[in-house]
Amino acid sequence: MAKSYVKKIFALGLLIFAVTHTSAQVELGGYFKNYNAVHLNKNYDYLILRNRLRLNFNYLPSEYALGYASFDVKNDHIGDHKDLELTLREMYIDLYFEHYDLRIGKQQIVWGEADGLFITDIVNPLDLREFILADFEDIRMGINSIKAQFYFGNSRLESIWIPQFVPAKFSAPGETWAFYTPIDEIAKSIPDSLIMVYNIAEPKKRLKNSEYGFRYSTHFWGIDLALSYFYTWDDYPVFRQYYKQTSNPFIPFSVTIKPEYDRLTVLGGTFASTIGPLVIRGEGALYQKRNFYTEDFGDNDRVVQKDFLNVMVGAEISPGDAFISGQFIQEKIPDYDDQMVNDEIVNTGTLLLSKPFLNETIKPEIFAIYNFTHEDYWVRFSVKYYPVDGVEIILAADILGGKKENKLFSQFDENDNVYLKIKYSF
Fold first, then answer.
1. Per residue, what are the HEC states of the chain?
2. What is the pTM of this model?
3. 148 and 104 in a common domain
């Protein structure tokens, strides 16, 4: 850990030295952001007190190459992660040729059309230590990879290779944004002394464990269309459960839990087009042999593998200077059986409303996600203020909850908060 931290500081020092000692081919930008959030509970205690400095470097050695690096220096004064955190977000080089280009290094690869959700946009792992409430640019983590893009008229073929698996990040058990897991459910009926949890092991650093994918995109008849294939590891571990009978009639079982990462193949597609003033978008993915939990006592590890469909259709319109966007998302397990813990079909809707005022210096916005199946929700009310160029002030509130316990949003129903962000970009 310390060695990695020193490497990041050394790399940042080299870049700053380059900026101050090289010609105008090097450009420096970024921002400073202050972020304060308060719990909307009885105590109104602080949830977040944070300062973040982001430094972005562009290096232009020639018209055929571009170097880019992005660093974060984050300081939390309260909460679960109080230490000063230095993160190398991205560092890559772009090489441009006549009919293709290459990007080599740590980067973010963005696929998909959905707002606020990840369907085919699953190449990069996510930092979910603050659930999905953080800015998307902070949720998506950079990964070391090689991306090649080949151009054919109106079409493009993108190929990616990721040599090493990087999992998603989660809050530790007991922290503010810790997810509800099968371990929590098992602990309701089995004492901790009869639960053994193995440490999770990541796939070994071998060539056969690398990830790769392809995405073909084109434009015809006024439609943007893309098809994708991704052979990856599931970023989220599955908790395999092995039950053993005990001699105690009141507590008949002990359980051993082994968290593991499994391989996953994802086939996806997106489209976008316009019909009059409407922009129509769609996205879908077939996850082959995804892991799901079962209550079948005859199953050895309480995990079954099933294909999984995730489909979105959405539309947006801009009447005047307002903006309205809606999406409908359906998740389905085609080969469903009644002993599975998950629902066969899950329906979700999203709505985004915004409208600027006073020469676009003030912009109120509402973003809402409602899960019709689980009856839980997340609603964000925000007002953005731009007093001068480069300055953004956001006052907002996040409301989470639902009728059913421990669903995606309802598990955080005690984490409603109001926050203030002040950002200066340079």
1. CHHHHHHHHHHHHHHHHHHHHCCCCEEEEEEEEEEEEEECCCCCCEEEEEEEEEEEEEEEEECCEEEEEEEEEEEECCCCCCCEEEEEEEEEEEEECCCEEEEEEEECCCCCCCCCCCCCCCCCCEECEEEECCCHHHHECCEEEEEEEEEECCEEEEEEEECCCCCCECCCCCCCCCCCCHHHHHCCCCCHHHEEECCCCCCCCCHHHCEEEEEEEEEECCEEEEEEEEEEECCCCEEEEEEEECCCCCCCEEEEEEEECCEEEEEEEEEEEEECCEEEEEEEEEEEEEEEEECCCCCCCCEEEEEEEEEEEEEEECCCCCEEEEEEEEEECCCCCCCECCCCEEEEEEEEEECCECCCCEEEEEEEEEECCCCEEEEEEEEEECCCCCEEEEEEEEEEEECCCCCCCHHHCCCCEEEEEEEEEC
2. 0.89
3. yes
* Number of domains the chain is built from: 2
Last residue of a domain, which of 85, 113, 132?
Answer: 85
Residue pLDDT, tens place only, 89-133: 999 999 999 999 999 999 999 998 888 889 999 999 999 999 999
Q: Would you say residue 224 lies in a domain? A: yes
56 and 136 housed in the same domain: no
Task: Note whether 62 and 118 are same-domain residues.
Answer: no
Domain boundary residue, one of 263, 293, 313: 313
Whether residues 63 and 168 fall in one domain? no
156-184: pLDDT as tens digits: 999 999 999 999 999 999 999 999 999 99
For 211-260, what is each residue's pLDDT tens digit? 999 999 999 999 999 999 999 999 999 999 999 988 888 888 899 999 99
- With cut-offs at 50, 70 and 90, classify the pLDDT of residue 19: low
**Banded pLDDT at 77 (limits 50, 70, 90):** confident
In a domain, 210, yes or no: yes
* Residues of the domain holding 213: 97-313
Whether 14 and 101 map to the same domain: the answer is no
Q: Is residue 220 part of a domain?
A: yes
Residues 147 and 101 in one domain: yes
